[in-house]
Amino acid sequence: ARRQEEEEERMKREQEQEAAVRSQQKEKVKQFHLKQQKRTEVLERRDQERLAALRSIMEEQARRDRQRVQFRADVLQQRRKEREELELERQREEQDKQNRLEALRKQVEVVAEADPERMMGDTEAWKSRHLNENELQKPLYSLSTYTDTQILSDPRVRLEQALREAGLQQSQYSKAVLSEVKPPKPPRRDTESTLKF
Asked: Coiled coil: which residue ranges (predicted)?
């Protein structure tokens, strides 16, 4: 009976030890689950904060993009409006110019009756050219020199030509004869030379 009590005591102690071990393991598992849950909550909170920050950044970027698109649209609209105004101004100036030219044309408009005789007649330019044809045949300027008749009327020229034809123009005789022949008119006194040959 005593052995049986000891055996029961031992079994009871073992059961208590096993219960204590199981209790510790349950506590550890519980602590582990709590730790995992906290870690998961922390990660989820961080993800939520990151998502909120990213959403805020994207909303800000979208707002800036909308502003930029609106600004570009306004600039394009302004440029289109300026181009249209410039085109209208150019058309207005062109119309004013045409009106002024038309008024000027009316001021200087030629009012002439039909005149077939005048139309088929000679023009002033043709008459002027026809009258000046005789003047065009005249020499442009007068020559102040000797004619061939005047040159050949000089006895010295005729004598030199005769000596040349005879082949004596380089002889002493021809030089002596030519120096003795007098010109048809005596030379002017201001052209006389003091040199003797």
From this structure: 72-114
